[in-house]
Amino acid sequence: MVVACADLCRRDRLAIHGESAAVAALLRDEVLPDVGPTYRPFGGEDLVVDVVARLPELVVAGRFAWMDVTVPVDRKIAGRWLFDDELPDVAALLDDHFPESYARPGGNGVSRWAGLQGDDGRLLAVVADAWTTPAVGFLAGVTTRPDVRGRGLAQAVCAYVTNELICGRTRVALLADYGNAAAVTAFRKLGFDLRPLAAARAVS
Questions:
Q1: 3-class SS at 69?
Q2: What is d(CA 178, CA 203) in angstroms, rounded to the nearest whole number?
Q3: Are 34 and 99 within one domain?
Q4: Which of 12, 32, 152, 164 would be a feasible disulfide site paired with 38, CB 3.0-4.6 Å?
Q5: Does 200 fall in a domain?
Q6: Which residues are CB-contacts of 189 (< 8 A; sequence separation ≥ 6)?
Q7: Which domain holds residue 22?
Q8: Does pTM top 0.85 for this prediction?
Q9: Where is the N-acetyltransferase domain (predicted)?
Q10: Is the pLDDT confidence value at 198 over 90?
Q11: pLDDT, mean over the chain
């Protein structure tokens, strides 16, 4: 099975699932000629690697940790939903400390932001509710000011948003970078499980 979705997490994506030979044939013979080279296959890491091995026109573009939880978390919770007039502060925090974030205020599919402020009113940590569906809540854009990292602030805001989004849904999820051991550890402490994913792209 292959499902195409344009501009999902700032990329045109092809969610893939099934037996690798069948998926590769479907991509090669039907899907990729129809949708074009901007669409990137995305799925379980082993499946993506196997599909790329069968399609020389593709390369593995990245490997990720899909992390999700199916129940409310019981760790420290802090933060609140931010108002629209606070979003420029979110954008400034991202510009300074996480410019590669796929989630941006006003971005397609980005619904709202939660944050935690210090006594002086500065934003210390933020997280977006982005690309959420009726079944799955999704966290993105998790960012903490460097001078307050290591205090569990982003974890506390993520706990707040997780418990907000889990109501009426089957799970809350996010994509983490394998190389960000601190983030993976923090979400594991919140009860998130990990599944390895990968993405492919057309050879340049």
A1: strand
A2: 23
A3: no
A4: 12
A5: no
A6: 75, 155
A7: 2-64
A8: yes
A9: 77-204
A10: yes
A11: 95
Alpha carbons 38 and 159: distance in angstroms, whole number = 34
Render 26-45 in DSSP notation, one character per residue.
Answer: HIIIIIHHHH-TTEEEEEEH
**Overall residue count recorded for the chain in this entry:** 204
pLDDT digits (tens, 9 = 90+) for 33-65: 999 999 999 999 999 999 999 999 999 999 999
- Domain count for the chain: 2
C-alpha dihedral over 19, 20, 21, 25, to 10 degrees? 100
Q: 89 with 40, same domain?
A: no
Give the pLDDT confidence of 123-140 residue by residue, as tens digits. Answer: 999 999 999 999 999 999
Structure tokens, 200: 């492919």
Q: Which of 45, 64, 83 is the last residue of a domain?
A: 64
Other CB atoms within a 10 A radius of the CB of residue 179 amount to 9
Q: Are 152 and 76 in contact (CB under 8 A)?
A: yes
Residue 203 lies in a domain: no
| Backbone phi, psi, residue 58, to 5° | -115, 155
Phi–psi pair at 72, nearest 5 degrees = -60, 150
Q: What is the CATH number of the domain that holds 164?
A: 3.40.630.30
Does pLDDT of 179 surpass 90? no
For residue 181, CA distances in Å to 50, 66, 109, 124, 189 come to 26, 14, 27, 20, 12
- Domain identity same for 85 and 125: yes
The mean pLDDT of 66-81, rounded to a whole number, is 95
Three-state DSSP class for residue 196: strand
